[in-house]
């Protein structure tokens, strides 16, 4: 299976700038999708491959900064590189605080944009890998029985087998059976491994912690 190239999404209302950016990005083997407005972008289907957004600050109607806020509010996580011919420090600070990768003022050097795009794509690759990992963990967690989930939750907040038995009103031997089963289903090699999984899953009351000295591992 041939791997699809990374994609750069460009939103700029100036057709000549869109074409110039596409020529530059395609020259280094990137795929480019061009949009004249935020609305046109939102009506499109985003690629499944790693991607980032090159966004002009000044767009017709809603500004690029407002568009960034709307994307964040909608849970659309895309690394953004802002381009502007009228940038100022407060504007760039606002963009960076909201998660922008870079804020480039026109005219900028081609290599500045290419470097920013590579950084943004690396961030998106990492985010996608993390998402896939969490989705896999969620599938494993959903395969647990309700009692196994209860045991896992108590293990993850530091309870020992004897304490879990008391809280769930079951025998310690039964706790150990559930513990073995859930460790196998989660493919956890150790309690530390299980704690990391619980933290990634965001289980209520769970934080990543090392087991206490002498804890049952």
Please specify the SSE layout and strand pairing.
Layout: E1 7-11, H1 15-26, E2 31-35, H2 38-42, E3 51-56, H3 64-73, E4 80-84, H4 89-97, E5 102-105, H5 110-142, H6 146-156, H7 161-168, H8 172-186, H9 191-201
Parallel strand pairs: 1-2, 1-3, 3-4, 4-5
Number of domains: 2
Given this structure, which CATH class of the largest domain is correct? Alpha Beta
Coarse morphology: elongated
Total strands: the figure is: 5
| N-to-C order of helices and strands | EHEHEHEHEHHHHH
In CATH, the topology of the largest domain is named: Rossmann fold
Give me the CATH architecture of the largest domain, please: 3-Layer(aba) Sandwich
The parts where pLDDT drops under 50 for at least 5 residues are: 207-217
CATH superfamily of the largest domain: Response regulator
Note the beta-strand portion. 5-15%
Largest sheet: 5 strands, parallel
Question: Would you tell me the overall average pLDDT?
Answer: 88
Q: What proportion of the residues is helical, as a percent range?
A: 40-55%
**End-to-end C-alpha gap:** 42 Å
How many helix segments? 9
């Amino acid at each position: 299976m041939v791997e699809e190239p990374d994609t750069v999404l460009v939103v700029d209302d100036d057709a000549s700038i869109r074409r110039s950016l596409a020529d530059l990005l395609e020259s280094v083997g990137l795929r480019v999708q061009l949009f004249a407005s935020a609305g046109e972008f939102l009506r499109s289907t985003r690629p499944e491959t790693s991607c980032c957004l090159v966004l002009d600050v000044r767009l017709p109607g809603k500004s690029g900064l407002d568009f960034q806020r709307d994307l964040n509010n909608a849970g659309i996580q895309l690394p953004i590189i802002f381009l502007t011919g009228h940038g100022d420090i407060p504007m760039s600070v606002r963009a960076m605080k909201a998660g922008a990768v870079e804020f480039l003022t026109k005219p900028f050097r081609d290599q500045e944009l290419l470097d920013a795009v590579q950084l943004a794509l690396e961030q998106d690759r990492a985010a996608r890998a993390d998402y896939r990992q969490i989705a896999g963990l969620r599938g494993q967690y959903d395969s647990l029985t309700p009692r196994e989930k209860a045991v896992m939750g108590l293990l993850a907040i530091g309870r020992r087998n004897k304490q879990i038995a008391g809280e769930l009103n079951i025998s310690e031997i039964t706790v150990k059976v559930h513990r073995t089963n859930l460790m196998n289903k989660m493919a956890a090699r150790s309690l530390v491994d299980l704690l990391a999984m619980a933290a990634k899953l965001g289980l209520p009351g769970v934080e990543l912690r090392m087991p206490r000295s002498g804890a049952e591992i």
